[in-house]
Amino acid sequence: MNVQDIMQVKITTISPDTSVRAAAALMQALDVGILPVCEDGRPIGVVTDRDIVIRLIPKAGLDADLPVSRIMSQPVLTCRADDCIRTVAAIMGDRQVRRLIALDDDGRIVGIVSVGDIARDADEALAGEILGEVVEFR
Predict the structure, then answer these.
(1) Handedness of CA 64, 68, 52, 33 (dihedral sign)
(2) 58 preceded by cis ω (within 30°)?
(3) pLDDT tens per residue, range 13-44
(4) Model-level pTM?
(5) pLDDT tens-digit profile of 73-108?
(6) Positive or negative, the Cα torsion across 113, 109, 46, 21?
(7) Residue 75 sits in which domain range?
(8) Can you tell me the distance from the alpha carbon of 133 to that of 32, in angstroms, rounded to the nearest whole number?
(9) Sign, CA torsion 1/114/127/77
(10) Which DSSP state fits 8?
(11) Going by DSSP bridges, is the β-strand pair 34-39/42-48 parallel, antiparallel, or unpaired?
C-alpha cells in the first residue's frame, strides 16, 4: 500500500503573507490542524495549530495579524505520493511528526498523509508505533 492510497487529497493551502488570524480561522472552518504554506504551488513551510499556540501566543507584543511566514515550520517534511506506508511511517517516527505533505514528481502538493490515515486505512499497529516515536522524549 502506498501513500496515494490513503492520503487526504482535498488540501487547502495558504500564502506566506496570509495572516495568522486568517490561517487560524481557516483551520477552524475546515476542522484541520495543518495548512501548507506555498509559493508557486510548492510548499515552503507549514503552519499547524501547535505553531500558533507555541510560537505566537507566548510572545508579548505579537499579534494575530502577523504573516504566517513569521511562525511557520520549516523545512517542510515531505514524502512522495508513491512512497510505501512503511517508508512514510519511518520518516514520521524519526522526525517525530504526525503528518507529511505528499508531493508529485514536480514538487507540487497532491495530498497530506497523517498517522490517523495510516491507522484508519492501512495498519493500526504501525500507527501505534509511529505515535510511540512521536511522543518519545529525545
Answers:
(1) positive
(2) no
(3) 999 999 999 999 999 999 999 999 999 989 99
(4) 0.87
(5) 999 999 999 999 999 999 999 999 999 999 999 999
(6) negative
(7) 3-135
(8) 22
(9) positive
(10) B
(11) antiparallel
Residue 36 C-alpha cell reads as 501548507
Query: In this structure, what C-alpha cell is assigned to residue 65?
Result: 495579524
Q: What's the Cα-to-Cα distance from 52 to each of 38, 40, 43, rounded to whole Å?
A: 18, 24, 18
Contacts of 72 (CB under 8 A, 6+ apart): 16, 37, 44, 45, 46, 47, 51
- CATH assignment of the domain containing 9: 3.10.580.10
- Number of independent structural domains in the chain: 1
DSSP assignments along 39-91, one per residue = ETTEEEEEEEHHHIIIIITTSTT--TTSBGGGT-BSSPPEEETTSBHHHHHHH
